Amino acid sequence: MRYRIDGLQYANWSEKVFRQMREGGVDAVHVTIAYHENFRETVLNIEAWNRWFERFDDLIFHGQWAEDVEKARETGRTAIFFGFQNPSPIEDDIGLVEVLHKLGARFMQLSYNNQSLLATGCYEAEDPGITRMGKQVIKEMNRVGMVIDMSHSSDRSTLEAIELSQRPIAITHANPHRWAPALRNKKDDVIRALGESGGMLGFSLYPHHLKGKSDCSLESFCQMIADTAEMVGPDRLGIGSDLCQDQPDSVVEWMRSGRWTKEVDFGEGSAAAPGFPPMPQWFRDNRDFGNLEAGLLQVGFDRDEVDGILGMNWHRFFAQSFGPAG
Amino acid sequence: MRYRIDGLQYANWSEKVFRQMREGGVDAVHVTIAYHENFRETVLNIEAWNRWFERFDDLIFHGQWAEDVEKARETGRTAIFFGFQNPSPIEDDIGLVEVLHKLGARFMQLSYNNQSLLATGCYEAEDPGITRMGKQVIKEMNRVGMVIDMSHSSDRSTLEAIELSQRPIAITHANPHRWAPALRNKKDDVIRALGESGGMLGFSLYPHHLKGKSDCSLESFCQMIADTAEMVGPDRLGIGSDLCQDQPDSVVEWMRSGRWTKEVDFGEGSAAAPGFPPMPQWFRDNRDFGNLEAGLLQVGFDRDEVDGILGMNWHRFFAQSFGPAG
Fold first, then answer.
1. pTM of the predicted model, to two decimals?
2. How far is A102 from chain B (nearest CA, A)?
3. Residues B293-303 pLDDT 10s
4. Which domain, by its residues, includes A210?
5. In 3D, which of A2, A7, A3 has the Cα closest to residue A237?
């Protein structure tokens, strides 16, 4: 079997996007349903997804377990798995971890770009590591089966999360810092610790994470994956495209500035280029997973390795991560 | 098989109560988790239950489906099913029906004693019937598999709910009005319409619903059940004990007055007797289902009918009610 799974998207969801998932043969997508939302606001986002599931039930459905990826393939649909880019949905209430897991949340970042109640974001000047509440929440996420995602966290917090977590964690969308030195990309020691602990790294197609940004070549992207496989083996790797298709620039501003500042934070952008940069021409949207497949074969991965990176590794990780601790 | 199921309890939950459920051989209980709580407060109550499920996992677990009654029997525990006595947990947001069903809610009263956004309570002077939102929510509850419970609603609203609902509804805890003419008890036309539509009536042991209140005899109670079986057959009947064990009087005050009045509403009590009346001596708590069994056999029910009334009828109803509309 060759399941195709994308480890992170945050599109401006529409029938068009869902149809493109089907065109691209994408069996499952981890979608972001909260950036800065509190619990009640997150529930409103779940309600909006429930309406999409009702309306487009021939294209998508709510994925909760690894077996839903298989069900997606069998029924010709895409399974949508929920995740948060910030722990704001649990507010200061550890009991909300189980409640939100029941509602389908399967990934939660312990921080976005800033300090959270749990961990430190990659844009902070100081990283004091995992907080008191963070340690408790890691245990609770381990217990119920919610994946710790450190994509936007800084190094010390990430290394401590890997160490503290009894179950493998994920960095759903980031690339190696030595290939593209964005603040969001990950240093080699983090990638090695992640791989050794059985965690997963999803490679990002967001231009600010790419070498050469929008002009990055498919070959350079795939060679970077090959180089990472040299470090941690091909089984720890997946795609987390970070596709933000059809979003207006106001949404990138919400992602970056939420409600935490009255000033504009440009994040990985700048005053001169505040919006979403164009995607590389070889990965416009869900229809272009075939290009990644060709590119990965081209740089020397074998068929099984390519299948692993394009979905089977996430599928295995889903199977070991989403249920209660054994 | 002889499953024992109680169609409604609201005890001051404790290890003692859970152990008494086991002593009484009670396989499943529908418990009230909200009277006047809004959505966020209801979630806090679910969190409290989650802690009990963790702490007493040798005695109880969260029941979601009819098969969980079977699992309860197999594992020697009691399955706890959630319900609301008021629609306050969905606020004015129909999307919360599906969200709360996902969190385990399986019964919701369309009103408590007062007018709600959906229907009219039995203490109102006028009953204009099911509201515009009520009609929408009935459809949504039918779709996801949440049972409409009209225990505290008034007659017209109840008859309209029976008519509007595409799936059988329940009156989880009430008795015939002609036997004990409390405002909360149900007129014959309501009981007949309920039975003819495939709905369930759970008989209440709350003294204010009994003929002679706390002094009601087991024989009178069981004969009342036999008389009701004459009207609608024995398959539509169960127990909904309304057991409010170990609750302080402040809780009965909360049930009745919530936040809707600054005055004291005595509900079924009075200024002279504002608290919980003592239970009849033959049904003190979960340990006394055996007395009901003996009493029902005594008034002439056969073995299968007694098993039906003490649990199998609820089990069948759970199986046809809790999943999505077929």
1. 0.94
2. 6
3. 999 999 999 99
4. 5-321
5. A7
